[in-house]
Amino acid sequence: MSLRIGIDVGGTHTDAVILDKDNKLVAAYKTPTTPDVTTGIINALNGVLRESGVDPSEIRAAMLGTTHCTNAIVERKRLTKVGVLRLGKPATLAVKPLTTFPEDLRKVIGNVWRIIPGGHEYDGREISPLDEGEVEKFAEEAVKQGVEAIAICGVFSPVNPDHEKRAYEILAEKLGSRIPITLSHEIGSIGLIERENAAILNAAVVKVAESAIDAFVKAMKEAGIEKAKLYLTQNDGTLMSVEYAKRYPIRTIASGPTNSIRGAAFLTGLTDGVVVDIGGTTTLVGMIVKGFPRESAIAVEIGGVRTNFRMPDLISIGCGGGSLVKVLDGGIEIGPESVGYELTTKGIAWGGDTLTTTDIALAGGYAKIDDPRINLDRLKHLDPDLVSKAIAKIIERVEGCIDKIKTSPEPVPVVLVGGGGIILPPYYYDKLKGVSKVIRPEHFQYANAIGAAIAQVSGEIDRVFSLERMSRDEAIKTAKEMAINEAIKAGAKPDTVEVVDIEEIPLAYLPGNAVRIRVKACGKLII
Amino acid sequence: MRLLNKESVEDIAIGAAILGTGGGGDPYIGKIMAMNAIEEEGPITLLDPSEVPDDALIIPTAMMGAPTVLVEKIPRGDEILEALRALERRFGKKAYATISCEAGGVNSTVPLAVAARLHIPVVDADGMGRAFPEIQMVTFHLHGITASPMAMADEKGNAVLIEAIDNYWVERISRAVTVVMGGSAMIALYPMTGAQVKEAAIPRTITLAEQLGRTVREAREKKKDPIKEVLKIVNGFELFKGKIVDVQRRTVAGFARGEARLEGIDEYKGDELIIRFQNENLVAIRNGRIIASVPDLITVLEIETGLPITTEGLKYGYRAVVVGIPCHPKWRTPEGLETVGPKYFGYDIEYVPIEERMRGYT
Predict the structure, then answer these.
(1) What CATH number is associated with residue B20?
(2) Identity of the residue in A91, A505, A513 whose CB atom sits nearest the CB atom of B73
(3) pTM score, two decimals?
(4) ipTM for the predicted complex
(5) Residue A218 lies in a domain
(6) Collapsed DSSP state (helix, strand, coil) of residue A258
(7) What φ, ψ does residue A222 adopt, rounded to 5°?
(8) CA-CA distance, B12 to B109, in Å (whole number)?
């Protein structure tokens, strides 16, 4: 019997689930997250093994979802000093590396950079040959300045990565393996500043990621799980190996919400639809397309830095189970303030003095909470008109998000997860605008860990193709083949790989000879 | 005369995107270049057209080509100065000031960087009052000013001087050179005198862009409705309020053409609006009836933030207010409509000013 384990390390809880080879849930376990992380993971692993009675040697794969890198960037903690090598001279000198970074972040990351001859045009021609002597000079400078990680970014490297790769070889030879090197074409798409920023952030979290991943590896050993291949989940809901994750940890940055969306999709068997995750403070709404979260098309800021990093397209509003309900000018306002985890002391039903959405749900008679501290008599004084208006408002806000995230006017199925989901009245499920049905799956509280456990393997490319020597169809065909090969290289079972996304963007204001094509392919992990 | 600082540039960039009517390229790179230049060289002098001496040499500067290339192959920074200098050499005379050809999109901010670097003023005016895709589509052209001699420069140090028989030939030749230069080039063209600026340019459009940007920014900070304020500033009309329910695109000869369909909300419930675009928004059709067309400006603003949505960024689900803004009267002359009217863009319709079209609705 080959089993898989999925782990989600969140801010408050660490969850672990075991799935069998048919993706059936064998066991699940929830435990508080610990400051050292490792202990929390070990507790979760021991808990889920105990619960299931499974022999650790039967676990063949383990998948971890973590928010370590996100937190390090947001809190500016434990980041490394980064040296930036840009290939593009004489182009690009107008905007120097790191100039768009917030001051406090630049202080931590340092201001070591060099722009040297190299890089390509949109059609793959060289801007100038790579100046290898300059690469060596940069290596010396990096050592002198005490740089701990390096980011290399070449102009149009998504079209032609040769110069980035060659610069990497030279640096690796000069510096050995002690300084990790990030290549921009492996993590970002067209948009030099945004891609370079993503590469710099990646380099800055390499050490944080390394310790988190080492903790994961150690925890697995201590729990006696020795035969499992280890993976981390990335933003797009697919897996990367431990070795790859150590090099490109920035890819984990939005894996939390992604795993939740994927988990919700899995628990309901839905491949296309909307996931509504109502928590205590916020409601997060995402879209599943062919089993994966839809990605955002616009530039995303991470810790105040503009990047073009691929993130799931999420709508988040301040409306959750702990959100405050206020009467303003005769109208009802909900959130964004929330009592959060203090609901059980501050909520009116619990004897507190703050009117929350959960109080409304209880007063409306559609929510049932099994908690002896609750006394429904405390809600009797609420004006029935206020209660019905507040309910209408909750419905309106959730409906608004669903409507915004949808990609077509047809009604879509909605998966409702999250503890705060009780504020949406079940009697209204059938009437929600633009919704075909609402599904509230079993085990929804483990959606994140389950999302990690079922993650697939992907490959993708994002290139500008010149259409002078090939037709558009040939370009798309080439792009598809490249993406499929990438997926197989990443460990996907070849006969399961399929193209899940193709996007074609013409370069405007140029005679029609260039097109940017993005393709993603996914397949099942070989266990 | 007044000075522009980094904050002004930030505001101008937002306003320029509104005047871009969905196209013109993201002002982001130009904005960063201008802001860096201000940081290193000090604030920029903005001259009212009335303050420009009649015999002064004014050289417009701009970027040409694909904005997608500009965001990847960022300029060296001084190629634009090289283009301007090439024209100065050709005339044996220094430029008194530079000016924008296109107040909408990235070309609003490019001349600002030039002005800061060369310590010359930038004139508070432009040649479109919005964004258009081709070189002859400027009011300078309507007044008989020739685009050539035009200078183009790339980051490698190549410079090309074009002397063409008319402005249409300048467009053809320079478009080809742009491709060779890697898809984007820095240009200086339509050299003119101060007197010609006063006659041919659309005045005070930099100030207009700044005012629009500041209004949107302040409204966001105060969480107020920015769109009403925007409309007041430009004497514009709210054409529609709705949700984008369909976007179709296709590419024809380097142009991103397409159509977006919006379903009405609030007082527009039950109504439908179709926007046809080709890089920029060209025609707005409400319930089968045309309510605005090029050269009047049609801009899609995100309903909550008031931030403009480009034609590339249009996608299902956005809630937007579509606004119509009267173009400058110069575009409403027979020559103006011949150059940028609906027929030039392939629509067999008569141009009717937006104020007249809206009369039936208000």
Answers:
(1) 3.40.1610.10
(2) A91
(3) 0.82
(4) 0.85
(5) no
(6) helix
(7) -65, -30
(8) 8
